[in-house]
Amino acid sequence: MTEGLIGGLVVALVAAPMGCFILWRRMVFFGAAVSHSALLGVALGLALGINVTAGVVLTAAAVAVMLVILRRDKRLADDTILGVVAHGALALGLIALAFLKGPGIDLEAVLFGDIGSITRSDLVWIFAGGGAGLVVLAAIWKPLLAMTVHEEMAVIEGAPVAVIRMVFMLTLAVVVGVALKVVGALLIVSLLIIPAAAARRLTMGPESMAAIAAVIGVVSVLGGLQAHVAWGVPAGPAVVVVAVLVFGLTFGVGVRNLIRSDPGPN
Amino acid sequence: MPHLPRGTLAMDSGTPQSVLRAENVSLVLGAQSILSGVDLAVAPGESVTLVGPNGAGKTMLLRVLMGLVAPTSGVVARRSGLRVGYLPQTLAPDPILPMDVRRFVGIGSDASQSRRSQALDEVGIGDLSRRPLHELSGGEMRRAMLARALLRDPEILVMDEPVQGVDLAGQVELYDRIAKVKTDNGSAVLMVSHDLNLVMAATDRVICLNHHVCCEGAPESVRGNAEYRALFGDDVESLAVYTHHHDHAHRADGEVVPLEQAHD
């Protein structure tokens, strides 16, 4: 369980800044589509006999790149393409796992996470992937923020926008890979967006939003695991529920600020 | 041959190397010819304004010059590593991204907090530094965008309709500010405008574009050009070039203030 706790905290830390960009760039559905492909990744990893995390990262990266290419066809709306790919990947993953069914495959764990099963060697992957994700996000933070504010402005002022977009996608794939064991394919996206969404109401700046999202993510993991240990509720969903509760609390703060706020002389 | 200091760009037949140059640029989109045979160069520290009727290809030429669109034929050359400060035509801040004005003006540079405050003071919105970006008015947003671009210490400031959405008094002041950029920062300025008269007072050279370059030159000489007059018709007669002196200034909110108080 200690391994699970440490793994969960690392994932919460890297998911926070990633989740902020997913909100700012309106990529929630994109994140969901990539996360759902994790199922297929698990099957791929098992079928090829490679590390499952590696299989998930590779599949998620492939799906992310495919989405970027498919979205260039403007005859279909983005959400249509995302819907097709997300559910296609999910269905394909379910079929692939059904074929591979045998000892060591727990569908529920893949879908909803199994934090208790995190081992030392999983932790190595989580630290490597999570650490790399944080380092890469810090490195591309400024140009990524600039292109989020105004993409053409960033291009004209010399930001390598295409490269940064691709690096961001690949980082998302890595985060999906390391988060899989903690919250599962269906709930990964909630760990990305709910702490960030809760942090939005409490902050005035992008960096502070990422920091507060990280704190909320950590609190959610701690609270969720506590509930898991105390009441035997499934850990992954418990983490998500705690995050949702924090999100709900920030509504109270937001409402109070609205009432208090004085528009001032204009 | 005079000795050039290390790092100085080679001179080309006595003229200083331009920061930005287009040679015989044409652009065809679908069956439509948007630009044909456009030659244009911006010298260091020079202020150039593209004017022309709506649909003349001004914004498209700017996009080609900035490398966003590849020309169908012709060559665009920018000085290598050219530091551009860009003001987009529109920037609608999204409230989902938490960002106050002082954070926004730091985008694209590593300017310290005190340099940011100074830049905001210089464009007259020093008191808005902690205001969320999406709460700014059109004129305040323009000023914030100008401050941001200037903090990059640009070699060329590029603006597409820099006074769009700004009231007349604000327009006059923004153009004054832009004219000052050249003298204060030594930065070249390239802007697109469809308004003729205000902009002419703030620029060294006007290029009149209607898919091709109709005419170019100092503002006053362009105004006398027959092709230019044909394009713009009565506007030329009814409005004088707006060169003037101020006996007062305006704060970002439009309030009248004495001159010395407005800029610091």
Give a written overview of the molecule:
The complex is a heterodimer of chains A (about 270) and B (about 260). With about 270 residues, chain A is mainly α. Chain A has a single domain (about 1-255), classed as ABC transporter involved in vitamin B12 uptake, BtuC. In chain A, about 80% of the residues lie in helices and about 0% in strands. Chain A is globular and about 55 Å long. Chain B is an alpha/beta fold and about 260 residues long. Chain B folds into two domains: about 30-85 and about 155-255, Rossmann fold; about 90-155, no CATH class. Chain B has ten helices and eleven strands. In chain B, strands 5-6-7-3-8-9 form a six-stranded mixed sheet, sandwiched between helices. In chain B, helix 3 crosses helix 4 (about 140-150). The longest helix of chain B is centred in the C-terminal third of the chain and has 18 residues, at about 170-185. The termini of chain B are far apart. The relative contact order of chain B is 0.16. The interface of A and B includes residues 23, 153, 154, 156 and 203 of A.
Helix content of chain B: 25-40%
Radius of gyration of chain A: 19 Å
Beta-strand percent range of chain B: 15-25%
Strand order of the largest sheet of chain B: 5-6-7-3-8-9
Q: Number of helical segments of chain B?
A: 10
| Cα gyration radius of chain B (Å) | 19 Å
**Main beta-sheet strand count, sense and barrel state of chain B:** 6 strands, mixed
Largest interface: A-B, 24 and 25 residues
Number of domains of chain A: 1
Report the count of strand segments of chain B.
11
Relative strand content of chain A: under 5%
Number of helices of chain A: 12
